[in-house]
What does this fold into?
Amino acid sequence: KAGVTQTPRYLIKTRGQQVTLSCSPISGHRSVSWYQQTPGQGLQFLFEYFSETQRNKGNFPGRFSGRQFSNSRSEMNVSTLELGDSALYLCASKEQGIYNEQFFGPGTRLTVL
Amino acid sequence: DAKTTQPPSMDCAEGRAANLPCNHSTISGNEYVYWYRQIHSQGPQYIIHGLKNNETNEMASLIITEDRKSSTLILPHATLRDTAVYYCIVRVAHGSGNTGKLIFGQGTTLQVKP
It folds into this structure.
């Protein structure tokens, strides 16, 4: 099976703009989670989608949002970008079932100028 | 989810065993210990998990103390490619805890040296 894919891999935006990142999970995986990684805060959970519904949400402002489509692909959107949003955004998918591990994609590197 | 404590960094000689400790003194009876690693600029990679018995797979071994308050990840023959940040995570793995949410700490940076 193909792994988790994320597009684009690199992105440069300016403050105030918005951005949409895309994630395609492993085939058959219905859970998709998003994480933000910065040097200062480390890896932080943003939210999780399962069967097109948000199942969990981390402690991020409402500027961060996401959605999941019927084919399990997911997008996350960040509006009104701030300099502090510069980060590596990681997507992970997992099968529904106990103990199953998460598979992470390579991430999207977002730089906000 | 219980909190974990790991040393910030460790060195290991290539070919030797790398033993990475993790303290999780507040772990609950239904929480599992998971280990992930992140090689520079890549997404984290699952390594192994366990509840109370020692576990081994093709990548590593996991030793959990009898009181479950600490564990050790063992890479039996470390190579330069094992240089990475290793994260120990404690979480409920079933029922309402069977979600994609992982709480990462700061992890241990393992440097394997030739």
In short: The two ends of chain A are 37 Å apart (CA to CA). The interface with chain B takes residues 4, 31-33, 35, 42-45, 48, 50, 55-56, 58, 88, 90, 92-94, 96-107 of chain A (CB under 8 Å). Chain A has a mean pLDDT of 94. Residues 15 and 82 of chain A are 5 Å apart (CA to CA).
